[in-house]
Amino acid sequence: LNAVSVKYLWKVIKIIIIFNSSFVRKGNSYLTNNLNALFLKDLMFFGYEVSYFQFAFKNKYTISVFDLIANGVKYKPLKNFRIKLINYIYAYLSIIPRIINNDFIYFYYPTSFKYATFFCILLRKKYGLYIRGEKGIEDKTSLRIYKNAYTIFTVSDYFTEKINIVTERKLANTIRPMIPFTEKDIVFDRVYNINQSSKILFLGRIAYDKGIEELLNAASLLKKTGYRFVLDIVGNGKFIENAKQITSNLNLSDTVKFHGPVYDIKEIKEFYSNADIYILPTYHEGFPRTLYEAMIFGTPIITTLVGGISSLMRDSYNCKSIESKSIESTFEGLKFAFQNYEKMIEFAKNATNTVYSIVDSNKMTHAQHLDKILKNEE
User: Fold this and answer.
1) Which phi-psi region, left, alpha or beta, contains residue 136 (left: φ > 0; alpha: ψ -120 to 50)?
2) What SS3 string covers 334-360?
3) DSSP, res 50
4) Distance between CA atoms of 162 and 180, rounded to whole angstroms?
5) Are 13 and 49 in contact (CB under 8 A)?
6) How far apart are CA 178 and CA 289, in angstroms?
7) How far is CA 201 from CA 96, 168, 278, in A?
8) What sign does the CA torsion over 277, 283, 287, 290 have?
9) What is the DSSP string of 197-240?
10) pLDDT in tens, 41-89
11) Model pTM greater than 0.70?
């Protein structure tokens, strides 16, 4: 059955998506990021009526640019109270009629609204989960939530296997990465320039738990040791002002360049293509899109192996691993890359082989996979 048959031969299926992060309020607009927008657009194309449930706050550090209301998404912002507890009590009371009035409830998980799944169970409403990170995914509450879900999607086989083991049925599926690149974008013939000065890239959300502080301190040690390099930091986030202050305190202003958020696909590709090393010293993850992107463009990777990262990345095969929350390990990882760049090139080529089948354009997208499961039910 195609989207037209869903929309016109049957009633329009109503889906409410409950995100695990708030939207951004800008004037009369409510914004989300481009990855959420891609998923949303696909569902709407398939004929579903989609609405969202989340708080909306002002955030000058946002990378969100997709206007929900201007693009036909039903979004009624939740009222914000000064006291956080009242906010959540009000939100949980508000979510009940929305669960009743929708056919399928889809949670980005983990989420502050995870207990709303119990309303779904009581009201006999089918719900699904999209597991994006590792925080709290193995507690008893989560286990009960998994077992009662209609379907679950994850960002890596690591999480998929865990869920299927604890639920004792093949409930979870790994989705194709939600990135705007496929195997057609893979750079197989990248030319590596081994110069005396290297370009290190961090691209992502600028947050404390991404290991930015450790990275900057490691960069300071590298500089003092005599290595020549430029560290490009691309992105935005609440830790950005802290990062700039640390950079100033460590006398790295001539070495560390802050570029702000980048949305254009060509610009993103250029950053990876011009970088000699991509580094991700993060504390916890599902599986970050930036690692897929670095592999696609042949950029040698230094990363921690936390969460779902360890399911795909292997030290001294397709990356150089470092310990999280460790300045020394981050420093040693970068020093290894500088001194053994031929090895890093070898890791990058192995990473290209790793990512090829994962981003295969013949695989279903997130929305296509959810669409297939919902239509099979109907």
Assistant:
1) left
2) HHHHHHCHHHHHHHHHHHHHHHHCCCC
3) E
4) 27
5) yes
6) 7
7) 45, 41, 5
8) negative
9) EEEEEEES---GGGTHHHHHHHHHHHHHHT-EEEEEEE---TTH
10) 899 999 999 988 888 888 766 767 788 888 877 777 788 888 888 988 9
11) yes
